[in-house]
Design goal:
This protein has 9 helices and 14 strands. It is of the alpha/beta class. It is globular, with a radius of gyration of 18 Å.
């Protein structure tokens, strides 16, 4: 069994943020409209699509910080490829299988990989989720009592009559043991965050900032990492699959299109204000080399 793809950006020479690790917890193929949408209704392309994307990684990130290590996203669960009853039954389950397919290798689960890099689950101060889809929240059952930061608007979807219609599988991403902590974003006047009126400062020191990036889901969020003299990083979840698409206003055909386009504009503006910013989507094959580039 080959080792999962990983990368680590070493700690900068100063500041409270340490090394940033990127792990691969599964692989995914999606339909082309899921990456570069044109406004086509999701149900239509789900029914008619005949091709798949190349295999793409499912990345999670471990951010070392002197006040406590933070995990961003948790990857795809092994049960999704071993349990024949993982997805809903009937037409809804068919939709799930038509939109994405996954590979997850035994021994490459989240908890195992965290232990291998010296950050076992028990050492985490927080986990934060870009959103509650299975390939981002599928490792939550392995987190025990670790506080899990989730946007309040995203957590609200769990109270819907059928969260599965929003792409959320509560039985697999929201176990009774999950220590979900709702994130309510607060106003910020930081000029370098000008495209975003609000943020959530995880450690109250301006280095790890959760930003609201809705559209893919109502409560999607991204993590901005400020690393002293090193380039800042933005862990973008599924706000895009390819950062080069954002300036062209090309967003996935999954979620609310108008909100996604607004988020795309904000991300482009954020990059303009922070020219060295490196944007790291969860499924971009270039995320690992971008993370470690000089």
């Amino acid at each position: 069994m080959s080792a999962p793809a990983r990368a680590v950006a070493p700690a900068p020479s100063s500041g409270p943020v340490g090394a940033v690790h990127a792990l691969t917890v599964g692989r995914v193929q999606v339909r082309p409209k899921n990456i570069a949408g044109t406004g086509t209704p999701m149900l239509w392309w789900t029914l008619t699509a005949r091709t798949w994307s190349d295999w793409m990684p499912v990345h999670v990130f471990v951010v070392e910080h002197e006040r406590g290590t933070v995990l961003f996203d948790t990857g795809q669960p092994l049960a999704s490829v071993t349990d024949p009853h993982f997805y809903p039954r009937g037409p809804l389950g068919w939709v799930y299988r038509r939109q994405a397919r996954f590979e997850v290798s035994p021994g490459h689960d989240l908890a195992t990989q965290l232990a291998e890099i010296g950050h076992p689950v028990s050492s985490l101060a927080y986990a934060a989720l870009s959103h509650l889809h299975q390939d981002h929240a599928g490792g939550v059952p392995q987190l025990g009592s670790t506080p899990v930061l989730v946007a309040a608007d995203e957590l609200a979807l769990l109270d819907e009559k059928r969260p599965q219609l929003h792409g959320i599988l509560p039985d697999h991403v929201a176990p009774p043991t999950a220590a979900f902590t709702p994130v309510s974003f607060t106003p910020t006047d930081d000029p370098l965050l000008a495209p975003f009126a609000t943020a959530h400062d995880i450690h109250d020191d301006g280095t790890l900032l959760l930003l609201p990036t809705p559209g893919h889901t109502p409560g999607s969020m991204s993590l901005l990492i400020r690393r002293g003299d090193a380039p800042p990083l933005l862990l973008a979840g599924d706000a895009t699959y390819d950062p080069s698409l954002l300036p062209r206003a090309i967003v996935p055909d999954v979620g609310d299109r108008a909100t996604q386009l607004d988020t795309a504009r904000r991300l482009v503006a954020l990059q303009s204000l922070n020219p060295t910013l490196r944007l790291l989507p969860a499924h971009d094959p270039n995320t690992l080399p971008t993370l470690v580039a000089p």
